[in-house]
Design brief:
Shape: globular
Largest sheet: 5 strands, mixed
Radius of gyration: 12 Å
Distance between the termini: 5 Å
Order of helices and strands: EHEHEHHHEE
Strand content: 25-35%
Helix content: 25-40%
Number of helices: 5
Amino acid sequence: MIVAGFGFRAAATVESLLSAYQMVAHSGQTPACLAAPADKCQAAAFQSLAARLDLPIRAIASADLARQATQTQSAPSLNARGTGSVCEAAALAAAGPGAQVIAPRAISKDRLATCSIAKGKAQ
């Protein structure tokens, strides 16, 4: 399974999320779903992005985010969420055991959103 994981600030717009997504979409892999921390999944911008891309949303629990080993490391993410990269952790958790990041964290032009793509073993 291919998953696009997201991390974003409350001020992020659908354009912020789309900007980050477009930076990693070049991987040539079409995601089966979008993933984000559970407390962010009802954000209007994230809901709008999911509707625009016609993809379901997978909510990831905080404990599942913290269990993921991420390629990139951000001190603010580590302090706030217990993981080096929220988007990578969300993508990995949603893609399942043995998943690997195939497009590491990209930051939107306005710096309000991040996106990463992970690929799980099951296809």
